[in-house]
Design goal:
Distance between the termini: 35 Å
CATH architecture of the largest domain: Orthogonal Bundle
Structural class: mainly alpha
CATH superfamily of the largest domain: Intergrase catalytic core
CATH topology of the largest domain: hpI Integrase, Chain A
Length: about 325
Amino acid sequence: MGNHRIEFEYAGELAELIVAFILHKRALGFKYSTEASLLRVFAEFSTRYDVSECKLPKDLVSDWSERRLNEKAGTNENRISVLRQFALYLEERGYRVSIPAVPPRGIDHFSFTPYIFSHGDVSAIFETSDRLKIRKYPPSNMQQVFPVIIRMLYGCGLRISEAINLRVADVDLDQGLLTIKDSKFGKDRLVPMSDSLTLICRDYFRQAHPCSRREDYFFAHRDGSPMSRSSIYKRFRDVLWKSGISHGGRGKGPRLHDLRHSFAVHSLKMQADKGIDPYCSLPILSAYLGHDSVGATEKYVRLTEEMYPELVKRVSAACVRVIPEVRI
């Protein structure tokens, strides 16, 4: 669902064009919130340059694209990428512009090393979660919530934000179906659950929601407020330690999001072992995960070559067919 409300005021001569560009992206189904904020900074930056003849002159593009002191490579790449999209939009509409070069592909889009849990790791995490003891004061129902939400993150490959934002109405316990609303990229999607996870959710619902309303959060504190990422992650770190899974430090993981990575890789591995061509399974998994492209799903697998070299080889071959190379 696109958001057609403009949150910011934009400075300078490019303001009207920037607003039109943002509305264009949102009409295509993108949230474009972080980018809109970044373009507000760019609009202010552009007021120092003459844009009367050329809307994006070379000096403006070059100065904006230059990497700042102490700026991370990924942050710089994102700034260039957003400006490049804006430049291409203007060029298509007949404006004179200088187009930024494609951001260097050598930058690793993951600022961390994904950790793929083994099936033994996953079992240990579930068992430890079931034995988790939460202090009684102040009162909390985390002991009920955590074993269920951790299974849902792995069993459905959800993002933590998607899980904690689920409402009672979004969880169909008869059909075993989750409705994920307005997630990343502004997409809604339906996510089927396994029979075993559906049974666990039914049992949890009976205990945690004796008199709930459809708009209540499915995973909630006793006062009705939703669980926070930080509280779930804190318990997750405790569970990792008690499960004998060491943490590699900052940027190394395992992180909570690695449950989603593990789901993706394990799912592809299972399909490949059954003889299902990744050419067929990749697009389905990509839609299930709510990715904006098959390439985003494929990145998860490329980073697991040490564990699954044969899977990487097969997925790479499939992606040549799913995403054909364009020669200019």
